[in-house]
Write a structure and sequence with these properties.
The complex is a heterodimer of chains A (66) and B (223). Chain A has 66 residues and is mainly beta. Chain A has one domain. In chain A, 12% of the residues lie in helices and 42% in strands. Chain A is built from one helix and five strands. Chain A has one helix spanning 7-14; strands spanning 2-4, 23-30, 35-42, 46-48, 58-63. Chain A has a five-stranded antiparallel sheet, covered by helices on one side. Chain A is globular, with a radius of gyration of 11 Å. The model of chain A has no long low-confidence stretch (mean pLDDT 95). Chain B is an alpha+beta fold and 223 residues long. Chain B has two domains: 2-103, no CATH class; 108-220. Chain B is 18% helix and 28% strand. Chain B contains six helices and 13 strands. Chain B has helices spanning 6-13, 52-55, 64-70, 92-102, 148-151, 157-163, and strands spanning 2-3, 22-29, 34-40, 44-47, 72-73, 78-83, 113-114, 121-125, 143-147, 174-178, 185-190, 202-206, 215-220. In chain B, strands 7-11-12-9-8-10-13 form a seven-stranded antiparallel sheet. Chain B has a six-stranded mixed sheet with strand order 5-1-4-3-2-6, sandwiched between helices. Chain B is globular and about 55 Å long. Residues 87-103 of chain B have low confidence and may be disordered. The chains are: A mainly beta (66), B alpha+beta (223). Chains A and B meet through loops of A and strand 8 and strand 9 of B.
Chain lengths: 66, 223
């Protein structure tokens, strides 16, 4: 499923390089301590997640190390 | 330099090599002029009349995509091409393996080069508002695109998904054009198969972004 990121995270991702044309691979740390690894973000605004996610749940987003 | 059409490439692939990954060829153009050259990967021909910067260029995995991009298409230029047989022919299967590996390196791992005057690049996106385009019409650092020549292979947004192995299955039907100033930092590479897509297209990475006013579009192509 996809979650729309807010302006804060969009700007954060636009400061990071792409992984390929139009997308980034990222790791997401949630406020509850869990980490979701190797997620896809399209156009720095749409994140694909394996479970329903609210943008308020996100504590940090980093590029996924390959 | 000449980039051979697929049919010319097949013609050369049916003939032996003169050495590992190359053939010495004789090219006849439509004006009847005959010239010798070296064909690399049965695809890129460097002619004797080419400037020394091309004749003496190192053909490596990292420089090959850039040279291929600079070369003119043989379509409408070459009437015939034949291999001048040498004594060090090697098997077709080996040549195929060389051909596959020649440019198979992602742009992020390629050396940094500089763009030439009037080079044009294209970026395919599923979005009609590309967030990596800056307010002053440049691209942000770390933005991927492809060469204008490679983009000629893409007729639909679905073609772009396959050729650039995009993980977003939505057709990338919005095409942005970039004409960066000369000497913009660029890395050339080849898209590896990924995301259930074949890849194989040329990808370029602008690690430092592009200058204001360089980006225009998008144009919409069929999905």
């Amino acid at each position: 499923m996809r979650c729309k990121l807010d302006r804060r995270w969009i700007d954060h991702l636009l400061g990071l390089p792409e992984s390929g044309m139009g997308y980034q691979r990222v790791d997401v740390r949630l406020h509850d301590g869990r980490e979701l690894r190797n997620l896809l973000v399209f156009n720095a605004e749409d994140i694909e997640t394996p479970e329903p996610l609210s943008v308020e749940d996100i504590a940090d987003i980093r590029l996924h190390a390959t | 330099m000449i980039r051979l059409t697929a049919s010319r490439t097949q013609e050369l692939l049916s003939q032996p090599e003169n050495g590992m990954g190359y053939q010495i060829v004789e090219v006849t153009n439509f004006a009847g002029r005959i010239e010798k050259g070296v064909a690399y990967n049965a695809e890129l021909v460097v002619l004797q009349s080419d400037p020394p910067s091309y004749r003496e260029a190192k053909i490596t995995k990292s420089t090959y995509p850039g040279l291929l991009n600079l070369a003119e298409s043989s379509a409408g230029e070459i009437r015939s091409i034949r291999v001048l047989k040498g004594e060090r022919a090697i098997s077709l299967s080996y040549r195929e393996s060389v051909q596959k590996s020649a440019a198979a390196k992602p742009a992020k791992d390629a050396p940094k080069e500089k763009t030439k005057e009037n080079e044009v690049f294209k970026r395919f996106s599923a979005y009609d508002k590309d967030n990596r385009r800056t307010a002053d019409d440049g691209w942000l650092p770390g933005t991927y695109a492809t060469t204008e020549k490679d983009a000629e292979n893409v007729k639909t947004g679905s073609d772009a998904v396959a050729r650039y192995a995009l993980p977003n299955k939505a057709p990338a039907s919005y095409v942005y054009t970039c004409k960066p100033k000369k000497d913009t930092t660029i890395q050339y590479g080849t898209v590896e198969p990924a995301n259930d897509q074949p890849g194989g297209g040329v990808e370029v990475l602008f690690a430092d972004g592009t200058n204001p006013g360089s980006v225009s579009g998008p144009e919409k192509i069929p999905d």
